[in-house]
Design brief:
Layout lengths: L8 H12 L4 H8 L14 H24 L3 H20 L8 H16 L7 E7 L2 E8 L8 E7 L10 H9 L3 E5 L5 H5 L9 H12 L5 E11 L2 H11 L5 E5 L5 H8 L10 H6 L2 H10 L4 H7 L15 E7 L7 H10 L5 E6 L17 H12 L1
Parallel strand pairs: 3-4, 3-5, 5-6, 6-7, 7-8
Antiparallel strand pairs: 1-2, 2-4
Helix pairs in contact: 2-3, 3-4, 4-5, 8-9
Pfam family, one: FrsA-like
Keywords: Hydrolase
Organism: Polaromonas jejuensis
Length: about 375
């Protein structure tokens, strides 16, 4: 993976994520070139400097978008609003969850995205799905020129990801005739920040609500719906497909077989002993965010809460077509997780593709080289939906 900040994996991963989601290298470099020293300031770097640099970039892009919109230049406005939304996301990403700036910066992220979304043809629709007394927040990206009911995909991201970050996948699917409902699951994006819904292991419940919504649309063929999710979504999507039998196909993009086990290793947890304070301090804002996402007050209770986050039983119930995409050099979820999931699925309707260092795409969710994985994912869904 390209390490813009050598020695700082999280910041470098963020740069790769922003690039994959439609960010421009020149813009990102403009924001980050002065952060080299800040990146070496502790395990997480100087997150205040990071915030200010990305906020400056986001505001600059939004100002360009507003000027273009006032002059009637729709495409320029759309593209700059969309990138401004992406950069606002990264301006907020490493702030502590209780930082007073999180709410207004995330609101700017959503506003910029909404301004860009309405300028697509057809427009990207903002969707609010009632869910257990609250709301699942989403977008519907329609396949263009669809005169009949089209196949569709429920799309989401991972632990700290957002539906906005995944829109590039929805746009790639739309070009191939597949519509997309991109949602923030409980614990993600706007569903976490605006609805207060924390992460939960039974992802099939929220995915089922998404399916219920799609079934109300005349432009969706409810018999031809798949589910795609990345990173931690490599747990959420297979779990949902195992118990929500309306899904015809599933893509686990960065497979997760035992999410609890992954965090136990990160925490260096030992049976019968509390989690080391030194370890949690070293995790910086990553540790703060996992507590916020799970709604837990401390790391020991967070680890207990994560105990049902595994696919040992669920994998046996996966009967739909499933594609597992993984990287040989995934630093967050080892390739052994993908193999365990693949081996545990009894159905023959399964495919696994592990990208190697030699060919590229070996990093987490192929962020070192998003193609050809993205096209492979989209074409696989075209063939099965």
């Amino acid at each position: 993976m390209f390490h813009y900040f050598p020695g700082n994996y999280m910041w470098s991963l963020a740069v790769n994520r922003a690039l994959a989601s439609g960010g421009m290298f020149g813009e990102i470099n403009w924001a980050c070139e002065g952060l080299r020293d800040a990146s070496r300031n502790g395990p997480q770097g100087d997150n205040e400097a990071w915030h200010l640099s990305w906020l400056r970039l986001a505001k600059q892009l939004e100002d360009i978008a507003k000027d273009a919109a006032s002059s009637g230049h729709k495409i320029t406005a759309r593209d700059h609003f969309m990138r401004a939304a992406l950069y606002y996301q990264w301006a907020e990403a490493f702030l502590k969850p209780d930082d007073a700036r999180c709410e207004p910066v995330f609101a700017s992220h959503l506003h910029a995205f909404a301004q860009g979304a309405q300028r697509f043809d057809p427009p990207i629709e903002i969707v609010n799905i009632p869910f257990e007394g609250a709301t699942l927040h989403g977008y519907f990206v329609a396949a263009p020129s669809a005169s009949d009911a089209r196949p569709a995909v429920v799309l989401s991201d991972g632990l700290d990801g957002t539906k906005e970050e995944m829109i590039y996948v929805a746009l790639a699917l739309a070009e191939r005739g597949i519509s997309t409902l991109a949602i923030d699951h409980p614990g993600q994006g706007a569903t976490l920040r605006l609805s207060g819904l924390k992460a939960r292991h039974d992802s099939e419940v929220a995915a089922g609500a998404a399916l219920d919504y799609l079934a109300t649309r005349n432009d969706v063929d409810a018999q031809r719906v798949g589910i795609v999710a990345a990173s931690m979504g490599g747990y959420y999507a297979p779990r949902a497909a195992a118990y929500e039998k309306r899904f015809k196909a599933c893509v686990a993009w960065g497979a997760v077989y035992d999410y609890h086990g992954i965090w136990a290793r990160r925490f260096k947890a030992q049976p019968g002993k509390p989690i080391s304070l030194d370890v949690t301090q070293a995790m910086g804002t990553t540790g703060d965010h996992i507590l916020h996402i799970l709604g837990m007050p401390d790391y020991d209770r967070a680890l207990r809460y994560l105990e049902p986050f595994h696919l040992r039983e669920a994998a046996k119930n996966i009967t739909c077509d499933i594609l597992i995409l993984h990287g040989e050099d995934d630093k967050q979820t080892p390739a052994s997780e993908a193999k365990m999931l693949f081996d545990s699925i009894p159905s023959s309707r399964k495919t696994m593709r592990v990208f190697t260092r030699a060919e590229g795409g070996a990093a987490h969710v192929q962020l070192d080289r998003p193609e050809p994985a993205l096209s492979m994912l989209c074409d696989w869904l075209v063939d099965r939906l």
